[in-house]
Amino acid sequence: MTESSHRTLSIVIVSYKVRDKLRLCLESLRTQVEDAPRLEVVVVDNDSRDGTVEQLPKEFPEVRFLAMDRNLGFSIGCNRGAALATGDWILFLNPDTVVYPETLRDVLEFARSKSDAGIVGCRILDGDGHLQLACRRSIPTPWVAFWRLTGLSFLFPRNKVFGKYNLAYLEPNGCYPVEAVSGSFLMIRSDVYKQVEGFDEIFFLYGEDLDLCLRVAKAGWKIWYCGTSSIVHHKGQSAATRPWGARMDFYRAMVTFARKNFGVGSVVGGGLSVLAGILATAGHLSTLFQKWRRLAVDLLGINLVFLVISFVWLYLTSGAIYLSPGRPDWVWHVILSVWMLAPLWMAGEYSASGAGRLRFPSALLLGVGGFLATGFLWKTVVFSRGSFVLGAGAATLVILLRRRWSSHRRLEPRRAVVVGTGPAAVELARRLAGSNQVRVLGLLAVDDEDSWGHDDLLTVAKMPHAIPALHAMEISAIVVPGDSAKITELLKRLSSFKGCRILLALPAPNAGAPVLVDITLDNTFPSERST
Questions:
Q1: How far are the Cα atoms of 419, 464, 517 from residue 529, in angstroms, in the given order?
Q2: What would the 3-class secondary structure string for 177-244 be?
Q3: Spans in the chain with pLDDT lower than 50
Q4: pTM score
Q5: In terms of Cα–Cα distance, which of 30, 28, 26, 31 is closest to 12?
Q6: Which of 51, 131, 325, 408 has the fewest Cβ atoms within 10 Å of its own Cβ atom?
């Protein structure tokens, strides 16, 4: 055992209504490499009431669970957990993360190699293999926040002035001092944590990591980013239980941060609070639209085609203007919307999975029949039966076309990685863009490869400890370049990767998209293949 394995790293996890994600996180901590530091793990549960404190202590007896009687927020939860920590370093870790087997060892070794390091963070990937920009960033001073709010940081992310908020101009795989790292993986010296008196508990959720980093820097310590080590973070799992409230927490935290650290007065602070409410509400409405997009498309589409057909038909047949003052034509749009969409709603068409093959046509026929029956029975206000029939038919066509489009979007290809990090692997991954067989999320590095990918294609896992990362990103296919010099050895090693299809990429004529051949064979390979 190495010297590091005799010393303890304290891990504090604050959990709120993410029992299943927390279970995956704790399981990943059990998969650390043999020479990883000895761990003590404290989970502070903020009154989740989802079975966390009833079920998980039995599954993870090595973990200490601290149950709160109400949701005290992230900062208070972290401080409560840290009060029980005994290690030289404390890692504050989000419950919806998956830690790679070598990450804790490598980050702690890096932290100990920097005598000026007060806080260390690592590279954080989302579930699609993309870099979460908040894993290293600048303190949002008034000017930095201004570039962010005006959108200039999005238009010019690699500009050293406009893009300072997320430091997008820096290499994501490097190691360097920054102004702040993310609280989803924040490793701090225990004595530094005590020196600055921990997290400021005026922050309920969000902003507390920025404030802690700022106070640590003012105390004379550096904040380091270690981009050669990674975790996967399924961001926003706890916040998803209260979407609008979580957004308000974020913007309120930014206002609180500005008031505390930049002397923002009551007038400006009040204006920022109003702006925070507007931004939170706009963001929430945008999310709701994404959730109910199919319903919104159907609602808009059927009313638009009915409007056009009714307007043209009425004008050509009688010279009258549809929806003109004094005409109650708008009533039919309400009736159309209710009859066409209510049966589809009850059939589950607007749920995540959509209505079944039998329920969908039944609901659609019920809606069309109900609308037409209403029109034919209510003869006194129907301006034209012909336009009603055409309008109902066009509305039905709109819904059918939207469903076909939605069904096509739901049939996603397999999530995959390409073996290797060299130019040939990168070129293969880019040639697979748009493939209907696989969706390449990143690269799978072999042991002797040091590269961590490229700006648009990151290395998401490294052999031989790749399985936790692949499972965290729900990767179900591994693409092996057919011209690899070590293909026999690679196939033998990949035979232990259960749950993943092994696809051999063969060069296509005329430099077209490579041909993918499934050679999985029940995830095992006969011994003669290795000869």
A1: 19, 20, 17
A2: EECEECCCEEEEEHHHHHHCCCCCCCCCCCCHHHHHHHHHHHCCCEEEEEEEEEEEECCCCCHHHCHH
A3: 1-6, 523-531
A4: 0.71
A5: 26
A6: 325
